[in-house]
Design a protein that fits this description.
The protein has about 240 residues and is mainly β. It has helices at about 60-70, 190-195, 225-240; strands at about 20-25, 25-40, 45-55, 75-85, 90-100, 105, 110-115, 120-125, 135-140, 145-150, 155-160, 165, 170-175, 180-185, 200-205, 210-215.
Length: about 240
């Protein structure tokens, strides 16, 4: 049987070392020998003796935070020995290795999988999202290990060495030490009152030393402004 389908670039990639590797630009392969964490529903194939256990957002505390914030990552724990292949609607997959002392803030919708050695929490993004539909919270990862993220298209990595502004729905992840805020990109005036809008009312602002990963696509809004106001009131009551 002959076909370009069976060319070497489409054959399964083998490695002597367990862990994450790219099968191709759209698919992650985990050579599993123990456990890893992955987005629920991301498994497209597996070989060997592997079990999958749904975890919600990774524990009761994170589950409650997700219910309040609308953010987080619906997780499953993958355990056993074998090869697991993961993908998310043919998005591009990228692997980031975190070292001790590193911390990465990432949009929960961009998390595909990560090593069980990493810690993560759902935290408020300072000043961002309060006047947009992008959400107020992100997932912050730290520790030593690898995390696989997805982007819609080939991203650009911006070095934050000057005031930097990004559409909140295009921001994939950034250095957790950066100071964030929001910036009104659209000037209020007669045109705005008459309904002429740029579609870019607010952008996220970043300051400090670090990087921001920006994808060439905007994630759809998580919720409407009314729901956010309701959410803000609920959070305010709980935090007061």
């Amino acid at each position: 049987m002959r076909s370009e389908l069976f060319s070497s670039e489409n054959l399964e990639k083998e490695s002597a070392q367990p862990g994450m590797r790219l099968q191709n630009s759209k698919m992650l392969k985990i050579e599993l020998n123990g456990e890893a964490m992955a987005r629920v529903g991301s498994m497209v194939a597996y070989q060997g003796h592997v079990q999958f256990q749904a975890l919600g957002s990774g524990g009761l505390g994170k589950f409650l935070k997700q219910k309040l914030t609308g953010e987080g990552v619906p997780l499953m724990k993958v355990t056993g020995q074998g090869d697991v292949f993961l993908a998310d609607f043919a998005k591009d997959v990228h692997i980031i290795e975190l070292e001790p002392g590193d911390a990465l803030s990432i949009n929960g919708s961009s998390v595909l999988a990560f090593d069980a050695t990493l810690q993560y929490d759902i935290r408020m993004v300072g000043g961002a999202g309060m006047a947009s539909s992008s959400g107020l919270f992100n997932c912050v990862f730290s520790g030593h290990g690898r995390i696989a993220i997805t982007t819609k298209g080939t991203p650009v990595v911006l070095n934050v060495d000057a005031p930097t502004y990004v559409d909140p729905q295009a921001a994939v992840c950034w250095s957790a030490n950066l100071q964030t805020g929001y910036h009104r990109a659209e000037q209020l005036g007669l045109g705005t009152l008459l309904g002429r809008r740029t579609g870019e009312a607010f952008t996220m602002s970043f300051a400090g030393q670090g990087f921001v990963v920006v994808q060439p696509s905007e994630e759809p809004p998580v919720m409407g402004s009314g729901a956010q106001e309701q959410q803000g009131g609920l959070l305010g009551g709980l935090l007061s």
